[in-house]
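Example 9 (inverse folding). The structure is encoded as follows.
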């Protein structure tokens, strides 16, 4: 596939998620042992592997067949043949019954969904999540910031969509989304747990990451978020939020 196994985001991704995903779950008191988890956007399978090790019943999907094969092989490296991986070319229609999952993990994936497809994809994820379930969004590049996180390009976040996509068959030159699209796109019947506690869990999670990431900037952003009534993760250059589903 032309990937470098020694890369942090390939061979090292599981270790990275062990140090970064686990503290988020702990800070918010999310016990996923015995729960059904959907990894939306399997990539190399890193988050799915962590969830499986923590006792979850894991289903993972990706739009790219090669990545599904790679994620399955990576899971075998870690002794996780129990994870179910599926190739789903159009994630606006998922092959699952309504309210199938207790938690849906969206790790650095929503920014790769075509803008016109984002809301239908979010509503489909809402369909398959149980009432009381959680959608965890992490690592999604924000269009609020002048520098796009994944490509490192300046000002591309502020260009109209039609100027950043060369064709439907090529990668976009920008991979980022507006924070309000992440917060509201799943529906109005979600509570942002980041905002509910004034950012305490957000900061606690980052303090317990390895290495710790509760920088002065994080505390400043959390303070601003409290003033305006938002979750601090929605003001970061890498968007994050923990959304709990209430009855519609």
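The amino acid assigned to each position is listed next.
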């Amino acid at each position: 596939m032309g990937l470098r196994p020694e890369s942090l985001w390939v061979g090292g991704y599981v270790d990275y998620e062990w140090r970064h995903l686990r503290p988020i779950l702990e800070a918010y008191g999310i016990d996923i042992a015995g729960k059904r988890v959907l990894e939306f956007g399997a990539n190399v399978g890193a988050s799915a592997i962590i969830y499986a090790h923590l006792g979850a019943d894991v289903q993972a999907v990706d739009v790219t067949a090669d990545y599904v094969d790679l994620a399955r092989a990576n899971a075998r490296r870690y002794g996780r043949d129990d994870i179910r991986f599926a190739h789903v070319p159009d994630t606006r229609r998922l092959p699952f019954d309504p309210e199938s999952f207790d938690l849906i993990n969206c790790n650095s994936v929503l920014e790769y969904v075509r803008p016109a497809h984002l809301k239908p994809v979010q509503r489909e994820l809402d369909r398959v999540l149980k009432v009381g379930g959680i959608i965890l969004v992490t690592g999604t590049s924000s269009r609020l910031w002048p520098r796009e996180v994944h490509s490192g390009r300046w000002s591309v976040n502020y260009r109209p969509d039609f100027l950043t996509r060369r064709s439907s068959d090529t990668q976009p030159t920008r991979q980022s989304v507006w924070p309000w699209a992440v917060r509201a796109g799943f529906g109005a019947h979600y509570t942002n747990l980041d905002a509910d506690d004034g950012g305490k869990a957000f900061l606690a999670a980052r303090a317990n990451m390895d290495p710790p990431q509760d920088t002065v900037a994080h505390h400043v952003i959390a303070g601003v978020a409290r003033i305006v009534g938002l979750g601090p993760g929605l003001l970061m250059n890498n968007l994050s939020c923990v959304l709990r589903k209430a009855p519609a």
